């Protein structure tokens, strides 16, 4: 799991704008979000994971302990909901949630030296990926 820790700079999207559209994000917000180049910092303090997502427009910090539900929200609005984080692989954490927008999974996975943020809405059968290059550990 230590492979997940580090700072990552945005590289590219795959189906991101279409995913946002099915999640009900308005046109202008969707266009703006698809043009952002976030930086993600992942660290662990004892048994608490902290994921910081920073853009020029807004920042989001997600704090959690594995297997313990926590109050969460999407950066694009839509209210709060309970999320359960799980270690789903050797270098992978998935956040599972049932939201007003559907059953959603957000997976943070290391593939070689790249962070892949994989979003799935199982209810609407849509998914996207955002890729990030490691800047430093």
Question: How would you summarize the topology of this molecule?
Answer:
Layout: E1 6-14, H1 16-22, H2 27-35, E2 39-45, E3 48-54, E4 59-65, E5 70-73, E6 80-89, E7 92-99, E8 102-111, E9 114-121, E10 126-136
Antiparallel strand pairs: 1-2, 1-10, 2-3, 3-4, 5-6, 6-7, 7-8, 8-9, 9-10
Helix pairs in contact: 1-2
Question: Helix proportion of residues, in percent?
Answer: 10-25%
Provide the CATH top-level class.
Mainly Beta
Amino-to-carboxy terminus distance: 13 Å
Q: Choose one word for the global shape.
A: globular
CATH topological fold name: Lipocalin
Q: Kindly estimate the percentage of residues that lie in beta strands according to DSSP.
A: over 45%
Q: How many strands, which pairing sense, and closed or not: the largest β-sheet?
A: 10 strands, antiparallel
Structure notes:
Helices cover 12% and strands 59% of the residues. The protein has 2 helices and 10 strands; from the N terminus they run E-H-H-E-E-E-E-E-E-E-E-E. It has helices at residues 16-22, 27-35; strands spanning 6-14, 39-45, 48-54, 59-65, 70-73, 80-89, 92-99, 102-111, 114-121, 126-136. Strand 6 (80-89) and strand 7 (92-99) form a beta hairpin. Helix 1 packs antiparallel against helix 2 (27-35).
């Amino acid at each position: 799991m230590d492979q997940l820790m580090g700072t990552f700079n945005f590289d590219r999207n795959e189906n991101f704008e279409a995913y946002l559209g099915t999640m009900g994000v308005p046109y202008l917000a969707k266009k703006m979000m698809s043009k952002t180049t976030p930086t993600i910092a992942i660290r662990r303090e004892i048994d608490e994971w902290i994921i910081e997502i920073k853009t020029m427009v807004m920042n989001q910090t997600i704090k959690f302990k594995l297997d313990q539900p926590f109050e969460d929200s999407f950066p694009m609005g839509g209210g709060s909901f309970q999320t359960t984080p799980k270690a789903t692989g050797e270098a992978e954490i998935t956040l599972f949630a049932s939201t007003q927008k559907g059953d959603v999974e957000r997976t943070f996975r290391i593939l070689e030296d790249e962070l892949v943020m994989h979003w799935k809405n199982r209810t609407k059968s849509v998914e996207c990926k955002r890729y990030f290059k490691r800047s430093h550990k």
